[in-house]
Amino acid sequence: MSESVPAHSWFGPTVMNPEPSTPDEPHEFGRMWQGFMTARLILGFVLLALQGALYATGASHSKALIAISTAYFFGTLATRFRAKPRPLGGSFSSVWGILVGLDLLVFSALQLLQGNSSINYTPLFALPILLVSVLGSLRLALGTAAGVTVLLLSGTLWTYLQSPAEATPQFVQSALSGVGYFVIALLANQLSTRLVSEGKRARLNQLAANIQRQVNALVIESLPDGVLIVDDRGYVRAANPAARQLLGSERARNSTSFDLRDEAGWLPLLDLTRLSVGTGQNQEDSVTIRHEGHAPLRVRVRTRLATPMGADGDSLCVLFLQDQRELEARMRTEKLVSMGRMSTAVAHEIRNPLAAIAQANALLDEDINDPKLKRLTQMVGQNAKRLEKIVDDILNVSRVQPHDRKQSEAEVQLNQSVYRVCMDWAEQSASAQRLKVSLPGQDALVRFDAEHLRRVLVNILDNARRYASHQPEAIQVNCGATDPLHAVISIWSDGAPMDQSMERHLFEPFFSSESRSSGLGLFICRELCEGHGASIVYERNARVMGDQTVDGNEFIITFLCAPPAEHTQMQEKTDAPWQTTLY
Predict the structure, then answer these.
(1) What is the pLDDT of residue 13?
(2) How many CB atoms lie within 10 A of CB 104?
(3) Is 539 helix (H, G, I), strand (E, B) or coil?
(4) Domain 222-326 in CATH: superfamily?
(5) Residue 82: burial class (beta carbons within 10 Å; 0-12, 13-18, 19+)
(6) CB 66 within 8 A of CB 55
(7) Which is nearest to 225 in space by CA: 245, 199, 248?
(8) Distance between the two ends of the chain, CA-based, in angstroms?
(9) In this structure, are residues 106 and 72 in contact, taking their beta carbons and an 8 Å threshold?
(10) Domain 405-582 coded CATH 3.30.565.10
(11) pTM
(12) How confident is the model at residue 1 (pLDDT cuts 50, 70, 90)?
């Protein structure tokens, strides 16, 4: 190819300047090389057969022509099967001499030694010029054309010296042939340059398309929403994992393609697809996918018409599926966030007037002796305290995370803290008869703030007391170490099973089954635990209560233990009156 190709050829703009060696497309270069070598081999065979036929018929008696044709045939045979594809470069070189120079020498010898024969070998010079134009540079192609023209003019000059009268037509023929060779060299080089540029552009576009296709496939595969590509007959051409999961069928999960008519639960999707294709407009609707033995699934579906894929011209429709439960959950979360901000602002505004009401009620209670009025002040005081607790819960949401480094790295003796919190809570709530606390003999030092631990335990114990029975051991607290790095507290109560809809939102803010509750207690517990690297979960487990096994609700808190060295030092400084089972 050309050594330095301009930005534009005669046949249009080029996107890059291909080098003569074309190193980035060895396959194309090798194919063109083999094509020219095959053409030279065929030409060598034709020349050998022609000279043999002329000699056999007596039209020619020159054995030199047969020898030259034979040598040329075997030379082309060797270069066809033995020579490796090599670029001709931008100047005359050994490769040029072996290929092009040999051709020029052979064709010149045939033209010079033909004698009285009327055969004209000058058209054969077009083959080496084409070879150089395609596999070399423009400069080398023009140089080769110039060399051929000089050879033709030299031959004509020799004829002129021998016979001046017959040389004029040959001069004209040589000049026209030379001009034609220059035109061939220029056009062939420009065409090859254009073809190489288009080939590179096509490869780059194909590479970009493949990358884009892979990125699109990766994005679609990772989308949380389902994506289906369906034709107008209801046949699914492609589906991402989220869509297969939403379709809720083993056939959809295990097949690369399937028909929406195969399952009765998919018929709403098929109807929406046909409506979109039939009207030519995008559709959006909520459908219900029902399968026998499974709960109905509400899905939000959006259709988008796509261009036909393939030669069959099928109309394709892209379906975007979204689980209504996730959509409702996101909307509910956004509403909760807005409500939380508003509630926090309202709580700040309520706090000061509420404190004034409580203080005024306390002063009023000191001056009242009438029992009826006393009961009224007590009611005001109790409701004021309840409102104060709700306000505190709302305000605590914004400060549950331990931003103070000392607080977040605080450590506490687990058994000792649990013992004290449980005893204080049992005394204040009059629940000592229902509470059973089981602590191991060896205490654990965990990373948690003591005040935050008290708030978490009291909150869970209050919930347990609200739903537990009045039987002994109806509320059970157990401590233990699962491994050297973790310790666990479980708070169990014999309450009734929790509804699954409530269980899913158990730790969400402002969610409660009680109308008189703020719904922030368990949310604050979870935030406090996560702020200290701990975790809290809810499970439905069975425990021994008296002489029988009873199912109940259990909250399990897993703590991070402090390093063993710190644990030993703390253990030596404290005694352990809590190392027992308490009622």
Answers:
(1) 45
(2) 19
(3) strand
(4) PAS domain (3.30.450.20)
(5) exposed
(6) yes
(7) 245
(8) 96
(9) yes
(10) yes
(11) 0.44
(12) very low
